[in-house]
Amino acid sequence: MASLTDLALGLVTLLLVPRLPRDIVWARYWRAAFAWAAATALAGAVYHGVLVDVPRIGGITWAVMSTMVVVVMSFMLAATVVQVLGPARAVWFWPLRLLGVAAYVVIAATGSPSITAIMLCESITMACIIGLWVWAWRRRHPAARAMLVAIGASIAAAMFRLVPGAAELLWTDPDSAYHLGQIVGIVLLFRAVAHGGAVEDAASGPETSPRFRRS
Predict the structure, then answer these.
(1) Can you say how many angstroms the Cα of residue 43 is from the centroid of all Cα atoms in its chain?
(2) Cβ–Cβ < 8 Å for 129, 155
(3) 92, 42 Cβ separation under 8 angstroms
(4) Rounded to whole angstroms, how far apart are CA atoms 31 and 28?
(5) Confidence of residue 170 (pLDDT cuts 50, 70, 90)
(6) Of 10-24, 74-88, 171-185, which range is least confident?
(7) Selected residue with higher pLDDT from 94 and 132
(8) pLDDT at residue number 98
(9) What's the burial of 179, exposed, middle or buried (CB within 10 Å: 0-12/13-18/19+)?
């Protein structure tokens, strides 16, 4: 079941990639995030269905998949920074991204690169993304509300893995419930990106209360 739900997540995400905007600066980062998310889910389908019982190969596959998750979050943060603050503020991406990467490196170095560890580390990156979208929502960014709803759905899906017994609400295992919840989250994220807006003044920053426009 975990393999099939991961496959469904990967295929849905892959189908959405070509439907994302193309002619906007920040769109390429969202397209990369969706493409990597699709690849990660498809790799997860193979892992759960075939490699999970092969310790040596499965361990290598898991290490690759965990790295792919970090890449997805990196593109999501880059897209958010550019879309909310404008291309001129893209330099903000690096210090924000390094927080999550540094936390993951520390945990991986201890030999504990579990899914829970990744979620905890990437929660730092997610907090940065949420913070930027909350700031944008307060300034009436056209995509902010939809983005926050999509992010909320993804966080809710993660609870199926983190909260004992939560997956029983869907009569399935934690991994499968998480994948099903992520399908809802990725569709909502697609809608937010497809109907989003960008900073009108690329040089604007948090101190200037920029205007936003619809794409």
Answers:
(1) 16
(2) no
(3) no
(4) 5
(5) low
(6) 171-185
(7) 132
(8) 73
(9) buried
Output the DSSP codes for the chain: -HHHHHHHHHHHHHHHGGGS--SSTTHHHHHHHHHHHHHHHHHHHHIIIIITT-HHHHHHHHHHHHHHHHHHHHHHHHHHHHHHH-GGGGGGHHHHHHHHHHHHHHHHHTT---HHHHHHHHHHHHHHHHHHHHHHHHTT-TTHHHHHHHHHHHHHHHHHHHSTTGGGGGTS-HHHHHHHHHHHHHHHHHHHHHT-EEESSTT--TTS---EEE-
Strand partners, 197: 214
Structure tokens at 153: 């759905």
User: Model pTM?
Assistant: 0.77
d(Cα 156, Cα 202) in Å, to the nearest integer?
Answer: 33
Q: Taking all residues of the chain, what is their mean pLDDT, rounded to a whole number?
A: 78
Amino acid at site 15: L
Question: In the prediction, which pLDDT does 58 show?
Answer: 60
Q: Hey, how many other C-beta atoms are within 10 angstroms of the C-beta on 24?
A: 17
Confidence of residue 137 (pLDDT cuts 50, 70, 90): very high
What angle do helix axes 144-162 and 115-138 make, rounded to 10 degrees? 160
Helix-helix angle 174-194:2-16, to 10 degrees: 10
Structure tokens at 52: 């999970």
Interatomic CA distance for residues 125 and 123, integer angstroms: 5
